[in-house]
Amino acid sequence: MIIPSAFWLVPIASVVALSMAFYFFRTMMAADEGTPRMREIAGYVRSGAMSYLKQQYKVVTIVFVVLAILFAFMAYGLQWQNPWVPFAFITGGFFSGLAGFFGMKTATYASARTANAARKSLDGGLKIAFRSGAVMGLTVVGLGLLDIAIWFLILSNFYEGDRMALITITTTMLTFGMGASTQALFARVGGGIYTKAADVGADIVGKVEADIPEDDPRNPATIADNVGDNVGDVAGMGADLYESYCGSILSTAALGATAFAMSGDMQMKAVIAPMLIAAVGVFLSIFGIYLVRTKEGATMRDLLRSLAVGTNISAVLIAVATFAILYFLGIDNWLGLSFSVISGLAAGVIIGQATEYYTSHSYKPTQKISEAGLTGSATVIIKGIGTGMISTCIPVVTIGVAIMLSYLCANGFDMEMSAEALSHGLYGIGIAAVGMLSTLGITLATDAYGPIADNAGGNAEMSELGEEVRHRTDALDALGNTTAATGKGFAIGSAALTALALLASYIEEIKIAMERTGMTLTNLKGEVIAAADATIPDFMNYFQVNLMNPRVLVGAFIGAMAAFLFCGLTMEAVGRAAQKMVEEVRRQFREIKGILEGKATPDYGSCVAISTRAAQHEMIFPSLLAIAIPIIVGLVLGVAGVLGLLVGGLAGGFTLAVFMANAGGAWDNAKKMVEEGNFGGKGSFAHKATIVGDTVGDPFKDTSGPSLNILIKLMSMVSIVMAGLTVAFS
Amino acid sequence: MIIPSAFWLVPIASVVALSMAFYFFRTMMAADEGTPRMREIAGYVRSGAMSYLKQQYKVVTIVFVVLAILFAFMAYGLQWQNPWVPFAFITGGFFSGLAGFFGMKTATYASARTANAARKSLDGGLKIAFRSGAVMGLTVVGLGLLDIAIWFLILSNFYEGDRMALITITTTMLTFGMGASTQALFARVGGGIYTKAADVGADIVGKVEADIPEDDPRNPATIADNVGDNVGDVAGMGADLYESYCGSILSTAALGATAFAMSGDMQMKAVIAPMLIAAVGVFLSIFGIYLVRTKEGATMRDLLRSLAVGTNISAVLIAVATFAILYFLGIDNWLGLSFSVISGLAAGVIIGQATEYYTSHSYKPTQKISEAGLTGSATVIIKGIGTGMISTCIPVVTIGVAIMLSYLCANGFDMEMSAEALSHGLYGIGIAAVGMLSTLGITLATDAYGPIADNAGGNAEMSELGEEVRHRTDALDALGNTTAATGKGFAIGSAALTALALLASYIEEIKIAMERTGMTLTNLKGEVIAAADATIPDFMNYFQVNLMNPRVLVGAFIGAMAAFLFCGLTMEAVGRAAQKMVEEVRRQFREIKGILEGKATPDYGSCVAISTRAAQHEMIFPSLLAIAIPIIVGLVLGVAGVLGLLVGGLAGGFTLAVFMANAGGAWDNAKKMVEEGNFGGKGSFAHKATIVGDTVGDPFKDTSGPSLNILIKLMSMVSIVMAGLTVAFS
Questions:
Q1: Chain centroid offset of residue B575 CA
Q2: Is B154 on the interface with A (CB under 8 A)?
Q3: Residues A544-580: pLDDT tens digits?
Q4: Antiparallel, parallel or unpaired: β A528-530 and B520-522
Q5: Are B226 and B455 in contact (CB under 8 A)?
Q6: Subunit contact A560:B654, Cβ cutoff 8 A
Q7: Any residues with CB less than 8 A from the CB of A455 and at least 6 apart, and which?
Q8: Which residue of chain B has the CA closest to A698?
């Protein structure tokens, strides 16, 4: 197969991204790590995080080996799958894990260095923290594009000629998306349970009962809490966004292969278009990262502007660049597709702004939650849940509008919804998601730098560097929260659009599985045709994927329930682990005399062990459930049931995810608002009440909520990979 | 049109139910209301409740007048609707309101009488409370069947002959379902906000801050709290279940008219079958009510057995009776349809048992929430939310199995899903829902008697009747909670099945609207046919109601979001009102000297006024939103969007409703478990923590959760009534 020369931009972008990441890493490592005490603390956190990650990867490796053997059996034994599947699955998982690992390695080296730099100036701290975040951002996109480029080059040597070649290549590559999703889910769930068990436990006994500040070295759970920030917020986030990034590119490529199957060389162009947009996004991200410069003695306002300039200019440039990329690529309807990307980007910005509105204490909703602290923790919880639920409205409506617009722009506003209009429109939805994630290099940098600043604060507190340093790291953290809103908007929005694109890929994969086993189907006119020739309406009618089919309806019920069940299991896991942590911390305060007076050192290790054991133990069941549900539904309810499941899971899960993330964020900031001196300030009745809110919000926003985005896509990925099984049995 | 003589059973059952209700009411009124203090307290509560209800009906009347004028314009001005719609809509609302009104009237007269009877013996209290609950149960079913019978007789005089006559009659009657739903939503939301604002406010200041027991006369919010139990739990529940009962019968009748349209006199039989099952259910309910007998000096165990015997025997008998009814009616596949009813009843029992398992402190989940109280309110909340989310699994899977079984039993296990199999199967789903609600006369009696016992307890406390009387009323309340589980299972399960049946009615209504305006559609073979001749698959293909149509997907997103938004708005409303209540109670404690020493009387009236104003003010927006969303989606996204909306709302809303109801129930009982002396007992750290859980759970289980069941059905009803608008504009 002839690969167009433009494609080579993809591996080049990958190498550039990885080189820049390495360069930033070296620069960061060259900085001074500070006092011996700072190095010691950072060492504890680093070794705790690494030992956890090793444990985690052991468990995940077992799961991967089992699944890979299963896929190998399906591919070689039963011929239900294509022979590449087991390998693609493993590399996806491996690279996703690697992205998390590198991110965490960087973060644990960067925290003491950031704290040390913050001893001198605010902008010095920002520079180290942000560049370290950029290591993560660029590693994720670099590894992602590397994996995509390698597999595309390998597979294009094995499939030749006809229109099925690219369809087979792209759907095979989706399997590596399943590897990435599986890894990401384990990372998010395991890391999320780890970090929140430690955080909740530390807060309950430390802040509420013993009245000592956050990250105080007298708190036995404080090292576990700081380790948690790294394994949850950094490693988990890295694996998660690696999955989102690759998932959006791969599913769009697969949609392109189908939509343009009949259009000659247009098919190849449609397949590589999302990769090219992502590749150009890498260069624009690096450009944006360099725009984040700070002058000596910069104020908060300067820093904020500098960060905003970096991310916003990258986003605007990718919008402009998309027109050029698609024009020079010479794809049909390049103008319409470019507007699809614009509608995706606009949706991301709006969702980001809405998130900001509902979770920042500069606005009414969160202020009202703080105020509810005056009447106690119960009203704080009620208000927070109410706010979180209401906050689902704008993102859902925005995504709805973006779906319709990117669909219609891509098919020339064809409202008739012919088979062709449908597949072109779906490609438009996919490419909108790619646009949103194309500047991930920089948006992830602003996101990942938050936990680094947070950890730097922890290091400063434990090393007793004094109020001012802590103030600076807190300011850096707050800064990150503000600029990260847009990045979060893009991540949430693209997850929904990608999941939609995966629905279409599922249909394609079912057709391929039918083709492989020589099954035919009946089209709308009642003629028997080859599965590959079926249009989407033919397919939908043949499998009765309509909304009055009870299988579809039951599937939709189960999909919505799966999201709740998954959140419930992870919430319970955090609750259980946190209770153990509370008991252990109380035990230490009781039995080790002198801890609270600072005369005795607490046993940090036992708290780290509790979090590690809990995370390892508790992450397995929910994660396996996410893999099992689509398989069981496929066997019992067939294709119609699976599509119902995916739609129910997407609609219910997306809304639930937004609710949980925003409620958690709002509680966090409501507490911060009180701590800034409002409604009685630190130590007041309202403060205690808002701490309860923040504690409840921790697993909402850092365990259950973010895992849902992966769950939604993993269920689609599993369905796609297991299509052969579904076809054989139902 | 010739009405079969069997139909007359329906008005007879209605008259018998209403007569028995009147008889039980008279018996209750003949009992002694106790000491002057008891009468005085009861008088306060009664007048507070009545004055609230008057206010509420005023607001609702305005909404009804506006909507009725709109419908009249649509029917007479634009000919988009059938001329009966405005009248049917109004009677549905009127009867639903009446059911709530009678229930509340009875409850407010019964509470002091129950307390007085409980001064002598436990079984005396049970008798009065349960018979008063039965007044409500029988009034609801009696008024429901009356309205159905009258409208069926009227309309059958106006439509003659062809197969469209019964389809038109039954879909017209569904409009009165919309009236009932609208009234029910206002009653549940308004009543729910009222009662929980008072309850939460009273608990926060009374129990947590001032350390005085529940219902203590020193608490200024205590009268408002007791009024709230009546307007929320009694009047709200009455209107709600009236709507469920009529909705299930009417939607099944409509499905029967369509499914058997081509089967001659079978069509009429299919239409009256659900009415007959309901009518026989009335007699069995009365039989069951008489089985609930208590001997002098009965123990708790005796009473429990007696209540369980009454409800279970009624349920078993209706299962048996269904075979006889359908056999003698001579309907096709009577055996299969009877098994559909059995699968519905079995699902109701399983959901009830699962509810019991997750919310009773006899089982682990709730016990663990109590235990979490040892580590504070944050872990109580986390555990409760986790438990509630996990508890959605069994009900959803059970409903899924019931849907598949009742569908397959009704169409002779036709897996091919031809057009005929589909419509017969859907009729089976509807009739399963009717089976579940047919013994509502007694299940509602066991449900409604809970708030009556609760209020009797309040009266006993405020009249200072002593510990023993309060213990007895608490025992009665607890007893009610246990036996009410099955009733709740039936209510939840039937709501899901009815909502499914309404989806099919929506399709029918769209076809009628197209027919009215002379529009045609293209069937699967590509032929242009009359709308009335279109099968479900034709319809689905023509309107592209498949899961890859972006309009369907966007609709599903909005449906799931609507459920969250609605809950968020009602939660916030309770939070806001509760905060005002807390401030008012604190103000009284501060400003009126001597309240806490029992030397001064608090100003109960100002608390009643706060709840009333809040409920009136806050119920309007969420309720109107529920009406507006399906209309807007219909105009913007057309038929495909509306069906997506309804399915997304059903799957997301049902799961959310189960989550909220169970989390709330579990928190309530976790607190009770601590109060029984576990984990430190009353006044302990764990007690305070579980009170926070209970307080958060109050709006979960009594405001937002129960309103969702109505919301789901109301959105369908609105879509059905507005079908003409959707057809005209999209």
A1: 23
A2: no
A3: 898 999 999 999 999 999 999 999 999 999 999 998 9
A4: unpaired
A5: yes
A6: yes
A7: A45, A107, A108, A111, A114, A226, A229, A230
A8: B382
Q: State residue B140's pLDDT score.
A: 96
Cα–Cα distance between B459 and B637 in angstroms, integer? Answer: 53
For residues B89 and B174, give the distance between their C-alpha atoms in angstroms, rounded to a whole number: 9
Percent of chain A surpassing pLDDT 70 = 99
Closest Cα partner for B575 from B704, B699, B688, B702? B699
Spatial CA neighbour of A367 closest among A692, A696, A655, A676: A676
pLDDT tens sequence across B623-645: 999 999 999 999 999 999 999 99
Provide the 10 A C-beta neighbour count for residue B625: 16
Say how far apart CA A61 and CA A67 lie, in whole Å. 10
Out of A400, A526, A575, whose CB is closest to B557? A400
Judging contacts by C-beta atoms under 8 Å, the chain B residues touching residue A417 are 544, 549
Tell me the CA end-to-end span of chain B in Å, nearest whole number: 35
**Shortest Cα distance, chain A CAs vs residue B105, angstroms:** 31
**Which H helix or E strand runs over A500?**
helix A467-516
- Of B92, B73, B272, which Cα lies nearest the Cα of B182? B92
Maximum C-alpha span of chain A? 85
A518 three-state secondary structure: coil
Nearest Cα to Cα of residue B638 among B696, B719, B519: B719
Which one-letter amino acid corresponds to residue B44?
Answer: Y
The C-alpha atoms of residue A176 and residue A148 are separated, in whole angstroms, by: 9
Task: Give helix B604-675 / helix B685-699 axis angle, nearest 10°.
Answer: 120
Beta bridge partners, A530, equal: A520
- DSSP secondary structure code for residue B530 in this structure: E
SS3 B528: strand
A537 in reach of chain B (CB within 8 A): yes
Question: Could A391 and B568 be called an inter-chain contact, meaning their C-beta atoms sit closer than 8 Å?
Answer: yes
**pLDDT of res. A177:** 87
Task: Report the alpha-carbon distance of residue A689 to residue A208 in Å, rounded.
Answer: 10
Average pLDDT over residues A417-433: 92
Q: What whole-number distance in Å separates Cα of residue A670 and Cα of residue A668?
A: 6
